[in-house]
Records
---
Amino acid sequence: MPKVLVSDPIDQVGIDILSQVATVDVKTNLSPDELIKALPEYDAIMIRSGTKLTKEAIEAGKNLKIIGRAGVGVDNVDVPTATRQGIVVVNSPEGNTIAAAEHALAMMLSLSRYIPEANASIKSGKWDRKSFTGVEVYKKTLGVIGLGKIGSHVATVARALGMRLLAYDPFLTAERAEHLGVNLVELEILFRESDYITLHLPKTKETYHLINAESLKIMKPNVRIINCARGGIIDEAALAEAVKNGQIGGAALDVFENEPLEAESTLRAAGSRLILTPHLGASTEEAQTNVAVDVAEQIRDVLLGLPARAAVNIPGLGPDVWQKLKPYLQLAEMLGNLVGQLAGGRVDTLDVRLQGEIATSESQPIVVAALKGLLSPALRERVNFVNASLEAKERGIRVTETRDATIEDYTGSLHLTANGTHGQQSVTGALLGKSELRITNINDFPINVAPSHYMLLTLHRDMPGIIGGLGSLLGNFNVNIASMQVGRRMVRGEAVMVLNIDDPLPASLLEEIVRIPGVKDAFVVNL
Ligand SMILES: NC(=O)C1=CN([C@@H]2O[C@H](COP(=O)(O)OP(=O)(O)OC[C@H]3O[C@@H](n4cnc5c(N)ncnc54)[C@H](O)[C@@H]3O)[C@@H](O)[C@H]2O)C=CC1
Ligand SMILES: O=C(O)C(=O)COP(=O)(O)O
């Protein structure tokens, strides 16, 4: 049974799903060293934001096939390292959207009505009403930075509360903004005009300290800022200062540059106009059930050899695409493997031509499958759908793609041409019926061969005696021929012979084969 490590608190429903296919160990609060020590024995790990999967940790996970993030943000995972190692990273893109949006809205209303301060006051024995006269959000301007899934829900609810909406999101279409009733503006205008600003964008190099001492200066004096997205998007020191000295109306933070928040952080001492929650945005019963099911199912599927529906590092290979393209993915991988073995050395360029019905399909997974096949003779099981493109890029293989929707002999076919150290090799393949793979052309010689594990290919002159000579030679070495195909362009010209054989061919036999008069070259292929 595969082993799964669950290193953050995950809803039991997720553990139950994982237990269908794996031995599950729940070990939370591991130190970085303990995590590194534990990881080598696991096939999968399921985490939330608490576990930091650094380069070192991922490299220690020699057997890891999948990292499951029960939530949205994967900024605690070194995704490039996972990709390099061929580990699929999945998340739950929508499982906690509502929870995070409602937390941001709760923060906005708490800031407006002094809920935390009034609660603390009454619990301390007082009955103070005059200190807590709030403001209404009705008719106020809310600036939403990042109008994705969470930002959109916040905007929708805020509109129902009667707020005027501004948004900044450089990747959003005007139509989408209009549909949400939001006015898309430049960041500076949003900063200047908003009474409330709420952040719903990822933390990246570009968004680091997006709100800083400079931007705080141009905001309205009563502005209230909410961050339920990621720590680090706001410069915490500048914010703490602005809240403390009354430069802004207040702020509410659920996320921090370093989590857990340091005991001595200046944020803890910034006064009651700064509301802090310990990363609770996704902490609702509903969201925790959603993300646990979503991610545990994906881990289960990947451990069973099926595709994941929300992989962040295999673009375009969700289950729908997988189902539709599966036979063509197998075809592309087989042809990539074949052309790689025929090339017999370094490959500099690979052209993938999609012909007929697949010319209109999503091509990226097909190209990735071809690269996986091409690299598998060199990299064996180290190459997979996750890292094939990266491995090819790092080897300097230039990939081109051509499409031709004209239907030729088959409804759909794939043609791969590789150029490398030993010149050019090309192969074509198609499907017989819905899923049977066929090799239909090798270096412009038409053939029709079902691929098999052991194969022998020869390039020879089309003349009497070749087939007999080869047959007896293999017979002498006790190699059984399962089937044989000859392809030629003209009578007595050049020809190829493709044999499916039941046994591996001794390497020394190739030299004997090329000594048969008329045989120019011979290749052993293992598919
Ligand atoms: N506090 C918590 O517990 C939770 C926090 N989150 C965080 O909330 C954030 C948003 O999540 P989703 O809405 O699900 O993501 P999403 O991917 O649906 O939306 C993000 C939006 O940010 C926009 N964006 C990217 N770069 C930007 C930039 N430089 N300036 C402005 N906008 C930019 C994107 O175009 C996109 O529309 C993420 O950082 C996520 O990790 C998510 C769930 C729970
Ligand atoms: O999903 C996200 O991005 C979150 O920030 C939620 O984090 P959590 O799973 O609650 O540690």
Note: DSSP finds 17 helices and 22 strands in the chain.
---
Amino acid sequence: METIGVLLLNLGGPDSLDAVRPFLYNLFSDRLIIKLGPPFMQRPIAALIAATRAEKSRSMYAQIGGASPLSRITIDQAKALSNALSQPQFAVFTGMRYWHPYIEDAVKTAYDSGIREFIALSLYPHYSLATTGSSFGELERVLSTKYPARCRYIRSWPDNPLYIAALTELINEGIAEFDGRYPHIIFSAHALPEYFITQGDPYVTEINKTIDALRPALKGREIHQSYQSRSGPVKWLEPSTEVTIEMLAGDGIKDILVVPISFVSDHIETLYEIDIFYRDFALKRGIILKRVKSLNTHPVFIQALKTLINEVLE
Ligand SMILES: C=CC1=C(C)c2cc3[nH]c(cc4nc(cc5[nH]c(cc1n2)c(C)c5CCC(=O)O)C(CCC(=O)O)=C4C)c(C)c3C=C
Ligand SMILES: [Fe+2]
Ligand SMILES: [Fe+2]
């Protein structure tokens, strides 16, 4: 039987402080995430923004240990998934959009080992053109220009039952940390410029699907929804996580549990933005803010990924 290559796709993150600026350059060079003037101006403007933003980003990465753990965690997820899948039917690879190991590196490694059939599994639970769309576009480019092969795509999985079960378990663990008090729950997703949605991006609809699937397990708890990590002068989805915390502070709320709903791994958005920045922001307003752990290599989550692979083969 021919081995199928499973490609786990994610954003990637700088693996050292020196990598921050070139990582930002790669990110801002991508017209699917942000359009900077006419096409020929994209790279020069990306270089400018990367240079301008690097210092602020570096200081955030410095506060979480000097690097993003995203690639390392994705590689751990690949190992765990590889152990869960039957061998030698599958081999699992990790391909990042904006830093090493790049999507092209993953495909080359697989190709060199003789693989000619792929399953691309996006590790963003919710589809957006800016994230999954961009990764699939890059993969299609690599396959069509250098490594011709068959590829099936797993686009999104906002209400996969095992994904929801794993999240439910982690949310309940988070609630238990409040020692019987009653935290308000904020589902915090990565922000997206509003024009994506106006142009038909399903990102918000799919996030709502995840939250709706979690609702029965959260019986009657106070739920809020917000968007974190804006990064430029356009109109972003509302409300921001900051404004939501501020509003709850105004209502006299003392306990908040943040669920990082659009990510499955730890990286700067969980380790710095929620754990350091929002926690401190809340504390200054008399609020204890805690975060639900990221799925990372949670065994039920790895089983969820396995069911996605099996479903696409049916
Ligand atoms: C659902 C996930 C994500 C969406 C949607 C998204 C959109 C988006 N992001 C930027 C700009 C930046 N993103 C950065 C980091 C980053 N973004 C995501 C996910 C989504 N981005 C992740 C998982 C990470 C973490 C990377 C890591 O640390 O491992 C950064 C770099 C950090 C910083 O300087 O703030 C930028 C910049 C835009 C413009 C955008 C719009 C569609
Ligand atoms: Fe981002
Ligand atoms: Fe971000």
Note: Residues 161-291 form a domain with the Rossmann fold fold (CATH 3.40.50.1400).
